[in-house]
Amino acid sequence: MANVVVIGGGIVGLSVAWELSQRGQDVTVLEKEDRWAVHQTGHNSNVVHAGLYYKPGSFKARMSVAGNRSIVDFARQYGVPVDVCGKLVVATREEQVPALDTLADRAEANGVPAKRITPAEAREYEPEVACVAALRVESTGIIDFPAVCAALVRLLDEADADLRLGTAVRGIRAARGGGVEVATGSEVLRADALVNCAGLHADRVAKLAGVTPSARIVPFRGEYYELKPERRDLVRGLIYPVPDPTLPFLGVHLTRMLDGSVHAGPNAVLALRREGYRWADVSVKDIADVARFSGTWRLARKYAYPTGLEEVLRSFSKKRFAASLAELVPAVTEDDIVRHGSGVRAQALRPDGSLVDDFLIESTKDQVHVLNAPSPAATSALEIAKHIADQVSA
Q1: Can you tell me the distance from the alpha carbon of 338 to that of 304, in angstroms, rounded to the nearest whole number?
Q2: Handedness of CA 245, 263, 14, 379 (dihedral sign)
Q3: Are residues 200 and 236 located together in one domain of the fold?
């Protein structure tokens, strides 16, 4: 009998397992893939976010600001590569300046070290950048999140946690006398509590456990390019646009990685499979789930045109993608970029068509379900773990 079963072997699930083990719990982690951190954790930009974008007092604001410190401390303690290099958020047009000022105010409210700077000062950090104003955010960094997960696995192994790869969950039910029973393909595990960190399948796992989640996972694919090696000198660090407050995602940006490569993106298009990293990755079941959900059509009415159409066109057009990057760094051309994979964001969507804009964690008796944990969840993972461990222990 396990004290706690954690479903999901990404950075959130492994962080939860480690936090619980530190509190004296016997932990079993179930991951359906044959490797850890295969999906969202293994397909993101590896940015340690500062916490300036999020509504003051929200889970995202509090946990990302605290997580910015704790994940860096963890990396340094356990030998994980990390570089707190800072970033620029740039207004490329005068009409974006009020939104930049609002972002600066939000950063101050959240306790994020951010400074408004002039275009000349911005070019001291990024000589090729184009802007009319900028925000310098010192606490943003770059890290190797899969390496964080590898360190967590080592720590859990040392703590005698039961770590199971290739183990999909087939059924969940309340156990007689309390606790839960979790059926895999070969056995039934009995536990005092269950924590669902299944990411792209979190809502389905919740339903399997008899819970009706308040939101549905809708997968969005983010596609990346990277600068060719001979053009990497165009970007020294991280360059982000001012986010459009009327749109759900940040927009394409440029990120220098730990190995010196420069990633560009992502865009945001509806994925045709929950783990669909290409247009060719199609699941009839996943498409049907999205099509039957009322929230999908309400979201489409709001964003399909022109925003959604532009994202799809940019997915198929290298020229359009390069033009988006050139708004930030005019020297970037179509010839300077090559494709570099993609990731899928598990975005929770409510029936009214609104995107869940904060972490969503719902609890029932003996169960905790993490139903929305997109970016900055990797940055915040150790803080999310503390919150969940408190709920499990309550």
Answers
A1: 27
A2: negative
A3: no
Q: Are residues 45 and 156 in the same domain?
A: yes
Residue 106 resides in a domain: no
Could you tell me the pTM of the whole model? 0.96
Whole-number Å distance between alpha carbons of 117 and 138: 12
Give the structural domain span for 378: 1-82+141-214+357-394
| Percent of the chain predicted with pLDDT > 90 | 95
- Looking at the fold, whether 322 and 242 belong to one and the same domain comes out as yes
pLDDT tier, 271 (very low <50, low <70, confident <90, very high otherwise): very high
Share of the chain above pLDDT 70, in %: 99
pLDDT digits (tens, 9 = 90+) for 4-47: 999 999 999 999 999 999 999 999 999 999 999 999 999 999 99
Q: What is the residue-wise DSSP string for 325-393?
A: HHTT-TT--GGGEEEEEEEEEEEEE-TTSPBP-S-EEEEETTEEEEEE--TTHHHHHHHHHHHHHHHHH
**What string of H, E and C letters represents the secondary structure of 186-243?**
CCEEEEEEEEECCHHHHHHHHHHCCCCCCCEEEEEEEEEEEECHHHHHHCCCEEEECC
Indicate the DSSP class of residue 290: H
176: CATH: 3.50.50.60
